[in-house]
Structures are given as structure tokens and as C-alpha cells.
Amino acid sequence: MTLIWCSYRIRINHLKEGGVQLSSKVGTSVPILFLYLFIIMIQIFTCLTHNSGEYANFLKKNLLSSADDKNNLKFSAIADDKFINNCNVEWEILEVVKTPHNLFEGYGAKNHATMLNKIINHIDNNSQIVIICDCDVAILKKGWDTMIENLHKKYDVLITPKFSGRSSVYFTSFTKKSYLKVIPDFTPGTKENDNKVTTVYEDTGYKIQDQFKNHKIMFYNLDGFDGESYKRNFENDGLFYLYLLNNQKFITHFGGSHKKNFTSNSTKKWIDNVNKILENE
Fold first, then answer.
1. Rounded to the nearest 5°, which phi and psi values hold at 160?
2. Residues 112, 205: one domain?
3. Residue 237 lies inside a defined structural domain of this protein
4. Quick check: is 146 in a domain?
5. Residue range 207-236: average pLDDT?
6. How far is CA 146 from the centre of its chain?
7. Claim to verify: residue 7 and residue 141 sit in the same structural domain
8. Domain co-membership, 197 together with 129
9. pLDDT class of 64 with cuts at 50, 70, 90
10. What angle in degrees, to the nearest 10, is found between the helix axes of 265-279 and 53-66?
11. Using the 8-state DSSP alphabet, how is residue 123 labeled?
12. In whole angstroms, how large is the CA radius of gyration of the chain?
């Protein structure tokens, strides 16, 4: 078997008898016989619940408009039985999961984890990078996909940490090899009080950092500003988080979208600011 490592992405245009016809970005074509190609495909997962469809559609538009290679992205979703698809969501829904309806404190984190733990069953055979992100995040840097690919040459996992220092899944990128090796468990930390009421004390995915450390897998933490600093820097009035890569704005997390209609004033301001940053790239 021959493995070709390409310094540029290669797309398969069509099959020809006796071989594969390939074309590069610059338009040249070369017929190659019986070769196995290493093609970096990024599979992006999000979870859908309640009114999250419009946020997810904006996220997909944001990722596509700012990527170097739009053809290399696959958009996959896990939904729960509370998701209301009233906007023709533009993600492929791979599974619908029944989640508890009892509204104890932190039920959203447990439901979120129930969906995330299903991702292992839906990773595409052709994907090389697996990204898990909330539906209310957005990219602030053009060419983000190339930047992540370059980071994964050294690190297996890219994490957006919470400001407590624990890991989160606002936007987390894995090499598929590391994901399948660890099979991360996204269950939040819970405890019972004296009245037998269950509460969540650590958010969804809080322990994945430790899980990967135990396997001696390299991970990279993005730098983050807390919500208050972000509001001052971004001149907005919602709950926001900002993450930097190489001291440049890279990812924003709106947060609390399940409590805000997509047409709310704070959401509109957030979207406008995201688009302005990308326009000035």
C-alpha cells in the first residue's frame, strides 16, 4: 500500500476506469493508479435542543464562510426529543435521543452529555478531525480550518477551558485517532444535597482533560477572557466568552442561547459583531 502525504488538499473529482482522477486547487489533474490518499476531513458535531436550530444554522454559515476549504467539512448533529425543528435546520441529524424531562438544577448539562456520549457511534470513517461545539459559538478568524489542522500536527486535542480551569465543550477539536483511543465521557459532575436533590457542580465535559492526560495525549488550551472582560471588549450586553489563538480573537461563545430567542436584541448584536470582525479580516 502506498500512502501519499500532500502539502495541499486533494479532492476526488470522479472515478475513471483503472484509476482515480485527481485535481489540485490550481486546476492541474493527474491520473493515479491504485493509491491510497490521506485526505483531511473535518467532521463537526453539535447538539440540538429546544430553539437551537437557528443558532446552529448561523454557526454552519459562519464556519463555511470563513473556512479555507468548504468542501472538506461535514456537519453532523445529535438532537434530543425536545428539539423543535421550526427553521429547517441545515445539519444532518444522525440520532434523536430521549432525555429526562425532570427539571432539577443542571438538567441541561446532563441532557447535553447524554447527546454528546452518542457521538462515538457516528464518527465518519473518512474523518481525520472531530470537532464538538455548542450551537451558539462562532469563529472569528478566516482560515480557521487550516489553523486547526496545523495545531493538530503537534497536539491531539484543542480545548476551550472554562475559567475555573476545567475543560469544557464549547468548542473542542480532536484528532479522530485520539478520540477513538480515549472515548471521552462527557457526563457532568453531580452531587446530592441533604434533601436528595441532585445538582450539577461541574459542567458537561469537565473531566475530559484528565481522561486524555491519563493516556499521555497532548492537548492545547486556548486562552480565554471571562464574560465581563468580553462584554467590555466586544461592547455587547449579553453573556459572552472570547477565546484567543496566538493572541488573536478566534472563537466566541454566546452562552445561554436556550434562554434567548434567536431574534432577541442581544443575539442580533452578537451576530452583527461576529460578522464585522470577519469582514475586517
1. -100, 100
2. yes
3. no
4. yes
5. 70
6. 15
7. no
8. yes
9. very high
10. 10
11. -
12. 20
pLDDT band for position 116 (cuts 50, 70, 90): very high
C-alpha cell of residue 264 = 432577541
| Dist CA 152 CA 147 (whole Å) | 9
Inter-residue contact 62 to 274 (CB < 8 Å): yes
The CATH number that applies at residue 58 is 3.90.550.10
Mean pLDDT, all residues of the chain: 78
Q: What is the pLDDT of residues 3-61, one digit of tens each?
A: 434 333 444 333 333 333 333 444 444 444 333 345 679 999 999 988 899 999 999 99
Same domain? 66 vs 177: yes
Do 32 and 137 sit in the same domain of this protein?
Answer: no
Q: The domain containing residue 53 runs over which residues?
A: 42-224
Q: How many domains does one find in the chain?
A: 2
* Distance (Å, whole) CA 13 – CA 23: 7
Residues 210 and 119 in one domain: yes
42-48 vs 129-133, strand pairing mode:
parallel
Say if strands 92-97 and 73-80 run parallel, antiparallel, or are unpaired.
parallel
CA distance 124 to 137: 23
Per-residue model confidence (pLDDT) at position 180: 95
Global pTM reads: 0.81
How far apart are the C-alpha atoms of 179 and 199, rounded to whole Å?
28
